[in-house]
Amino acid sequence: MEERAGVLDDLAELEVFRTLLEPTGIKGIVVDCPDCDEEHHVDWALMQANLRQLLDEGQTGRHEPPFDPNPDDYVSWDYASGYADGVAATAEQEEPSGRHNAGKHAREE
After folding, report:
1. CA torsion through residues 23, 27, 32, 35, sign
2. How far apart are CA 109 and CA 100, in angstroms?
3. 101 vs 10: CA distance, rounded Å
4. pTM to 2 decimal places
5. What number of helices (H) and strands (E) belong to the chain?
């Protein structure tokens, strides 16, 4: 159940990341693969599909990586998370009511 909750959190975070970063030209997430010791560039829709498959089947299948991706079009999960936190912090500072929001996205650490 704990792993399932983590994947659900990842899906929620991914949606936030996509909403914030896709309009800036970012196409997805770059993931370090321990199996082949290479980076995989995974677009938003494929990453979402992988996470959903992990929820449904307990594992992800193999997928074809994009052909000759431009690394500048992809960011790490940590970068996307920091970006989302920065946007939330900026929104909190600009909030006219003076109330303070949590300033964090789906995964609280």
Report:
1. positive
2. 19
3. 21
4. 0.77
5. 3, 3
